[in-house]
Amino acid sequence: MESVEAGETPGMGVGRGATYLIAGQASLVISGYIVNIGLGYLLGPVEFGRFATIVSLAVLLETVFLIGVPTALGKHIAETRGGERSLIRRLGWLQLVGSGIILLALLGMAQFLSGWLNDPGLAEYIRVIAWGMPASAAFQLYTRILNGLAAFGRQAAVIALFSVLRLLFTFGFVALGTGTTGALWAMVLATVLASWAASMFGRGKGHSNTGDGSWRELFDAGVKFAIFSGAVRFLTTADQLFVKALALDHAQAGFYAVAGLFGKVPHFVALAMSAAIFPLAAKSAALHAGEGVAHSVAQAVRGLAMLLLPLIAVTIVLGQPLLTTIFGVAYAPAAQVLWVLVLGATLLGLFRVFAMAVSAAGGLRFALFASLLMVLLDGIICLALIPVAGMVGAAVAIVITASVGCLIMARHITKRFGRLNPLASLGRIVLASAIVGALAYSARGLTGAWALLACAMLYLAHFGILVALGEVRPAEVVSLFSVLPIGSLGGKLGSRIRRLWGR
What we know:
This protein has 16 helices and no strands. It has helices at 14-65, 68-80, 85-116, 122-148, 152-175, 179-201, 215-246, 251-286, 290-327, 335-360, 364-389, 391-417, 423-440, 448-468, 474-480, 487-500. Helix 9 runs parallel beside helix 13.
């Protein structure tokens, strides 16, 4: 079995593997922003809103139906150093059949779904993404297999390949005059080619031992993961679908999608925080050290506040200059929901951190219950507010839903593991963010690159104020930034600075 790539060992260090994956994820994030910004300019608010709505639908379906089994399979491969070949084959067929069912369902329900989304013209686009479902299923399967084999370099290469192909195909097809249809076919074609590359990289996987592995156990684990991840994904994508379906002005879907791009920043930070807190909470729970779980959660809350509260402050004051600088004056109306969406995304990120900590400490069932409750609440509020307030109603729904979820999880953690006690730190962080917001008023007249530079300087000033208030030391600031896509570099730099400061 060839479980690792040339020059790697099965026990490749976490740092090296993380560096590969960070590079791959960075390429995905950067290419995604380039595609969305470019299409925002080329397609205009109405067509870009249609594109964003269809992509949100595709991502939601992929997360709910096509990620659970590959994730469970990757765990099995990692635990058994290659996995049982017959088990891999059986689950592979299960994944393919599942994607085929989704393909047929989308083709058959395209007209119905487009009617529900209040835009009959979307039926053509739904049929396009339907053909991408088997490719997405294969992509998820083979990349999770590579992850289980610890072939992080190959996994990152596949992700980077998809990112590059998506860029080239999207702008190539749109330049030929294919519009939204071409952009969607570009995503499908990029996924097909990247899946083929992943399948080549994953050859030689598995061994012939029969063992005691049960595909039913893996499937059951996959279903549980799919429910949890699907619920969280619903909360981050369904609002775009609701706006498209319920808002009277079709352009609002495009405005909301543009504002939502800023909301992805808290999502990326929360992903890193939740990944960091999971093993810490699991270890503390295994040692029956509940206070350790509470301490880890409190530190994560503090980190999220440091990174994201200044972002909220800046977008409150400079939201419109930022939007018009990046997307043009046509998207200026999106400013009215920008800071609300960033706040909602921050609260959702906090909920994700809480839920991951509780799951790691043996509370997966409670985390699932809270997630599903939030899905129900978000749907009800969206149905009530969007017909009246449009995209503002969707943004408010996210804030209310995420706030309720955070309160439920915080109460559960406090009751089970002890008080979090982050209030003193949060007070100083809120004060620093408020000062940054006040300073931002002096930059309200700036446009273009000067507005972006002002935002960057204000963001950095926030951490200078925290140092002045005695909340953090310079070394901690560098360590904090290690959760971002430059994490491996930040972590190394942070360790050096901590040694210099005697920490």
